[in-house]
Amino acid sequence: MNDKNKHDIDEGYSGEGYKEKYGFKDDIKYLYKPEKGLSEDIIRSISKIKKEPQWMLEKRLLAYKTFKEKPIPKWGVDLSKIDFDDIYYYLKPTANIANAWDKVPEDIKNTFDKLGIPEAERRFFAGTEAQYDSEVVYSNVRKNLEDQGVVFISTDEAVAKYPEIVKKYFGSVVPITDNKFAALNSAVWSGGSFIYVPKNTKVMMPLQAYFRINAANVGQFERTLIIADEGANITYIEGCTAPIYLSTSLHAAVVEIIAHKDAHVKYVTIQNWSKNVYNLVTQRAYAYENAEVEWIDGNIGSKANMKYPSVFLKGNGSRGEILSIAIAGNNQEQDTGGKIYHLADNTSSRIISKGISKGSGKSNFRGLVYVGKNSKNANAYVRCDAMLIDAESNSDTYPYFDVRNNTASISHEAVTGKISEEKIFYLMSRGISEDDAIVIIVLGFIEPLAKTIPLEYSLELKRLIKLDTSNSMA
Hints:
Shape: globular
Distance between the termini: 24 Å
Helix content: 25-40%
Largest sheet: 12 strands, mixed
Oligomer: single chain
């Protein structure tokens, strides 16, 4: 590698801070590593290794057929350079899921120790799950939650232990034929979280999952299914990282949430994939009578990111909220936003987005609000703010409203602007460096959304933003 290429790579990965904490890679001897590319034989092998029932194999094969038939989307980010034949679709790093940290294989445990996962579990979380490439390698939930009937296991385990529940809900919110990448996930999915919270059960501490891509040219396709029964309350937080490679990787997850009557589900993502990862995720929730679903979405990493959390307000009085932060650095495109479908009476929603672009980065907002013709008194608010750190960066917004009932109340605001030179000058006149002044302004810009995230993740988000916006004006 010549010095110029090395400089270009380093510049694209948030500097030394990212590489020290997240950009390392470990040499792992995988128990199962098929050839690159996807075929029906590989899908059958995945299902056989997992000892799945016939109905799951049939879903996988139908999804594979759909994946081959559907074209790559032409809108959003440029996906034409994804080489589907140059990807490992399943890597098995360990034989079993450990429920105690000292039972995790040493080489994998060292990776998550570096990321601080055990410490976070001890200090803050009610349960933790860690996925390494294609498999969950660690899963644990506090005993008091188990005693209340809360289930927090990998989706693979759920297929074996709760087959009727999984069969009922799997693909019910995101059909396996929904889009090309949801179909790909449904064909080769592995790992992810299965959560069931019983009726009127309040999980007061967050559950956490951490997803790590370690190998080069690998696809990670976790499947998360969250079911909050009537009156239940749950907060789920996921974090994502990957090391730096010259070749690209693919992350195509599917998240399905079912919030039954009077339930409340908060789903928080801090996505910090390295900038050689295509992040193409389908996230969708159903909210029934008086239920509430919140998506809080922090997007910092990835080469190209397409993610639009959605809420279908299917019950009277249901509520949906999508709060999104996206930062696009050099050679990076964030295409994010959210979708709300008002399908019942007296429903309400908010979509609030903060996009930041620097250098050659591009941050796009796409927001959709739909109000059905039989949905009375819907109330929706959409706001998208974009900040351009320098003259080279850019941002676009694509709001879309489809309102079919004249009792709806819809409002939309949008502001795009550059960092104020007056603000930078003012801070510098107080002895603050130009870099630090920019960081202060950016943190102030995202503060209204950052304060909605649990404290430790909010601090981590701010630290990552500080890394990503340093030397911005150089």
